[in-house]
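Batch job 17 of 40 flagged for manual review because the log was empty.
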Amino acid sequence: MKELLEMLNLPYKDESLYETALTHSSYANENHTEKNEKLEFLGDAVIELLMSDYLYREDLADEGTMTKRRAQAVCEEALSIYASKIKLKDFLKLGKGEAAKGANAAMIADAFEAIFGATYLDLGFREAKKLFNKIVVPHLNHVWKIKDYKSTLQEYIQSGDKRNISYHIIKESGPSHDKAFEAAVRLDNIITLGVGTGKTKKEAEQNAAHDALKKGNYDLKEAV
């Protein structure tokens, strides 16, 4: 743990927060300790705010462009890229079964968010921003190419009759430490355009949007 904190050059006060940030629910269940899900929840909001602030200050052309860029930069795939640059996977605390299989992208992305939640609680927003500038901003060129199917679908729908799309989790399965989700994307909350599954709700929604783009008669084949 100290090795990671020293690598990040964090002037930490409460080391236990970062320990919790790296603790997957499978390990927590086996060892009767705290899991990282609450810190992940907080860190998700911290990263989204930091990314919004960064894009605003970059003075991109319009809200639509910033929204698309933000979605690309905070998706699971992007978070996994940032995490790989600091070798976060090597520090995760997993239960025996998960350790044998190895951490998947969802676990790594969740822990990355949790680290930002821990930093915010321990050191405040200023230090969280310093960390963001150090381990996220230098790698943004790698994430602008990520396909964001939700934004692509939204742009298509709104370019027509200004109708609305919404995402709904229609099924959850598996134990708490290894859940699977099924999402549906609906037009005007009535017509199901596509369905997708994933290890996280975000991944399931992205796959539902991808499914909708593949099924629809859209002039967006390059996005699929």
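Reviewer: the log was empty due to a logging misconfiguration, but the result itself is present. The mean pLDDT is 89. Unflagging and moving on to job 18.
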